[in-house]
Design brief:
The protein has 159 residues and is an alpha+beta fold. The chain is built from four helices and nine strands. Strand 4 and strand 5 form a beta hairpin.
């Protein structure tokens, strides 16, 4: 299983549509826009198998923090260390030991899909942010977890 992990400075139209498709299936239609993926301040790392993107990682440096904005892996490729490979690439190439790293994880029905990988990279939960998506949920994007109301919470992780 040869999977290439690499940074892409500017996604081409095919790569962009592949990332949007992954996002739509995992988070809900419209959660990430084309504009989001084309922001200059973000770092986009992708996992590629047979010339197709099977996962992506988005990170960005802010004034005081490095923010892990999103990790998304196609469902059939989850639990195969793809997320770990993406995070390892980012941590090795873009971080130094003094960087403060922040990640925000969805919590749905007491489960946090990104919780395990955050712990693996030394990040710990520091604050339950509550239902920060409540106003946008099923309004600005079609949430996959919406059930007559927003049920997702946000947990802030940091080192």
């Amino acid at each position: 299983m040869t999977i290439e992990i690499k940074e892409i400075k500017k996604l081409n139209p095919l790569q962009l549509s592949q990332c949007i498709e992954i996002s739509n299936r995992l988070f809900g239609k419209g959660y990430h826009s084309r504009k989001y993926f084309l922001k200059e301040e973000i770092v986009t790392i992708v996992a590629i198998k047979n010339n197709k993107i099977i996962g992506f990682f988005i990170g960005k440096k802010e004034i005081k923090n490095v923010v892990i904005d999103c990790i998304a892996i196609k469902r059939r490729w989850q639990k195969k260390s793809i997320g770990t490979k993406l995070m390892t690439f980012y941590f090795r190439k873009f971080l130094n030991s003094k960087d403060k790293v922040v990640a925000y994880a969805w919590k749905i029905k007491n489960k946090m899909p990104a919780g395990k990988i955050n712990y693996k990279f030394g990040l710990k939960p520091v604050k339950n942010m509550g239902k920060i998506w409540k106003e946008k949920c099923n309004v600005s994007f079609k949430c996959r977890s919406y059930n007559n109301t927003c049920i997702c919470e946000c947990v802030k992780f940091s080192n």
